[in-house]
Amino acid sequence: MKMYQVDAFSHELFKGNPAAVLLLDEWLEDALMQNTALENNLSETSFAKRIDDLNYEIRWFSPVKEVQFCGYGTLATSFIIFRNFPHISSLTFHVKDIGQFFVEKLSNEKISLNFPVQIPQKLEQPPELLIEALNSEILEVYENPQAYIVIYRDTDCILNEIPNFNLIKALGGKRVAITALNDHKHENLKDYDIVSRYFTPSMGVDEDPVTGSLHTSLIPLWATKTGRNEIIAYQASSRGGVLYCRLLDNDRVEIKGTCRLYMEAVLNLNDLKYK
Fold this sequence. Notes:
The chain is of the alpha+beta class. Helix content is about 20%, strand content about 35%. The protein has a 17-stranded mixed β-sheet that branches. The longest helix is centred in the N-terminal third of the chain and has 14 residues, at about 70-85. It starts with a strand and ends in a 9-residue tail after the last strand.
């Protein structure tokens, strides 16, 4: 069985978020998919089951559990499908409990992902554990189904944050995003409108390098605050990644990105037995 490793939301290797991708004709046993993700030890391993040439089901596994929604894994999977089947220029992923993701191959190496938004709700009283886990002054806190979203004052607060991962892990499985408008004090970040980071120790990875699903909440949030529907976002992990975003009608958001193929591998799974 062939597996690919892709650096997603990056135009160069060793940046962005590394995702493993497996294309399937039938689902593997859940235990086998989970163990494969654990063996890979990446933020996510994506499994896509073909329905027909233009339609797939997709699932994602972190090293410790299956996740509901992974944007960068969807981007990496789309990249592999378009690479393997160059006559295809559009796809639809069918996702349990979320709906349909619409994907298009663009002419400039970018891939366009059309996702439903997740509108975050403002919290008047954030959990004390969240406040204790972070070091910078908190301006506002929002919440979506997966995460707390914390607004910081400026870019330096984002770049300099060293959170207490043990306290974040104790937040009942919730992940923590920090975000700020880019103040353009850093020359290497001058092209971006917002900056964020995403702490995910409950998923088996302390900091997720680049996160498409997070931006389905960040973009409607910052669009409301700035009045701008088009936003270039930078996720300021050690690897870094760029997301070209646009808020659409009908509670949808477009997120565009590029990928690079790092590895093709053959998995030796023939002797495994799962019940």
